[in-house]
Amino acid sequence: MISQVPLLDQGMLARARLPAMSDSTLIQPWRRPDDEARLIDRSAHGLAALARAIAERLGRSPRVALPGWICSQALEPLRQTGAGLTYLPVSLRTGQIDWDAAERSGPFDILVVVHTFGEPVEMDPARALCARHDCFLVEDCAHALAPAAGIADAGDAVLFSPHKLFPLPEGAVLSLSSAASGWAADLDRALGRPPMAGDDRAWLNHRLFQDAVPDSLRRFVPQSGLSRFEADPPLSDPPSPVAPSDMARRLLAAADIAEETRRRRDNAEALSKVVSRLKDVRLLFPKSKAVPYRLALRADNPQVAAARFAALRQAHLPVESWPDLPPRVVADPNHADGAMTLRNTVLLLPVHGALNADDLARAYRRILK
């Protein structure tokens, strides 16, 4: 079935029956040589732990700078640490941080750079800013499939979220560079020893059901996600940190990065050809060579985005807006021509590896005319 979330296939389930690996072996594909890396449940909990570790050394709450074009819900664990958050304006064309504005907004203790939708961000300005302010550089690679050129090669800390790109109930990786390895003990204290995740059978049964439903019956399956483009999910308390379950670890070991890379690129190419015929919607990153998290589209205006969103929802085809911006970003006029415009014009289509390129193109072509 064409779904927004990655689905399990029989190959991954078969590989997940192999003997369990150690955590250090399990997370090897997501860590750089000489990194101190940890398997955690969610990257949001990893960022919060970094803030707590740095606060312990500073003797005060850290000042954290983040791009304004960022998901508010994902920042709730960080907010609960008491860290002071500053949202930096972003470029309307690329969604990347406006580095001139960032320089005027400092000083900071932590700078978070996000590779949104897996698209590499220019890291030289980030490194230069951190050198001037003596701050800790965090690369948020939660939308990236794995380390690649321009991804995970500059941060003092790097966060990956395999559970967002593969069918996993939980699973993320937090790495410290060799230069930042002196923070490992502080980080471990901040992470603590969370309890093991609960029973994942309900999650597994739901994913298996979705995979078993023929696409011809998609219209009879209740839709997930928000029903209106303009709507944002209500802010809720984040789940408490847990240690990934045995099922999550086995499925993570079964993940095939090379095959997922191929399938995502094939699916994105198929949908890109559909989009290329449209007059009012285009690719957000038309020259991208990155492995896509979603296929990101940019509509000419909010009205077009809302209409396209509604038409796809009516056809029971997956489509998303992104993100639910922090309230302070929404209220700040400095973000009107960057984060706010992107929020109001960007549409996301699924490209994960459980999908078939021909089926995707055929289904979306009927609606995107």
Automatic annotation (TrEMBL):
The keyword Amino-acid biosynthesis does not apply. Coiled coil: none annotated. InterPro entries: DegT/StrS_aminotransferase, PyrdxlP-dep_Trfase, PyrdxlP-dep_Trfase_major. Pfam families: DegT_DnrJ_EryC1. GO terms for molecular function: pyridoxal phosphate binding; transaminase activity. Keywords: Pyridoxal phosphate. One of its GO terms (biological process) is polysaccharide biosynthetic process. It comes from the Bacteria. Belongs to the DegT/DnrJ/EryC1 family. This is DegT/DnrJ/EryC1/StrS aminotransferase. The lineage of its organism: Bacteria, Pseudomonadati, Pseudomonadota, Alphaproteobacteria, Rhodospirillales.
